[in-house]
Write a structure and sequence with these properties.
The protein has 184 residues and is of the alpha+beta class. It has 2 domains: 28 residues; 130 residues, Beta Barrel (Cathepsin D, subunit A, domain 1), CATH 2.40.70. It is built from 3 helices and 15 strands. The strands form 3 sheets. Strands 4, 5, 6, 7, 8, 9, 10, 11, 12 and 13 form a 10-stranded mixed sheet that branches. The longest helix has 28 residues.
């Protein structure tokens, strides 16, 4: 039978391994996650973003849930209806818009939402806004987005990569408004 002093090193060793694992997970989370692009990840340096309110359109699919739609302008074009998707790892734009606006695409890429995975190409959006709130330039994924006839037509997903640039995001379903506040 082991004595208390013989058990202590094993317990400390297990606790140290768990602590190191937890610290590693926290460090990776704070470092940020990018989407996969040709074996690497893409990150953009943060720039100043705006603050303000954005009107929401609620689309009830008659069954499992609601979609929150926001107006997105790209350069001087739009508005395009984007789904507000906090579960999307990266924002996604319909490849058809990229073609219409003659935006240059880059490497193959993928992005995930809660329900789907999308494969496409990277595209750098230099000037864009949601409602009247200016967004920082960002590399997002251009992909073919499925559209169902008779359903609401959306042209992209505004994901957590964009929303995380704000210090505070509030969604008011009753007033159908999203409030974005930057930290600075």
């Amino acid at each position: 039978m082991r004595t208390e002093s013989q058990r202590a090193p094993r317990l400390v060793s297990r606790l140290t391994a768990r602590s190191v694992s937890l610290l590693l997970i926290v460090a990776l989370s704070l470092a940020g996650c990018g989407f996969v692009v040709g074996g690497g990840s893409v990150t953009d340096s943060p720039e100043e973003v705006g603050s303000g309110e954005v009107g929401l359109d609620l689309f009830d699919d008659g069954g499992s849930g609601r979609l929150l739609l926001v107006p997105v302008h790209i350069a001087d074009s739009g508005p395009y209806q984007f789904v507000l998707d906090t579960g999307a790892s990266r924002s996604i734009i319909d490849a058809q818009i990229v073609e219409e606006l003659e935006l240059e695409t880059g490497q193959s890429a993928q992005a995930r939402s809660v329900a789907s995975e999308f494969r496409g190409e990277t595209v750098k959006i230099e000037q864009w806004r949601v409602g009247d709130v200016e967004l920082e330039p960002r590399t997002i994924v251009a992909a073919d987005l499925p559209q169902a006839e008779g359903e609401v037509q959306f042209r992209g997903l505004l994901g957590s990569d964009v929303l995380a640039a704000f210090g505070n995001v509030e969604i008011d379903y009753d007033e159908q408004v999203m409030t974005l506040r930057s930290d600075g």
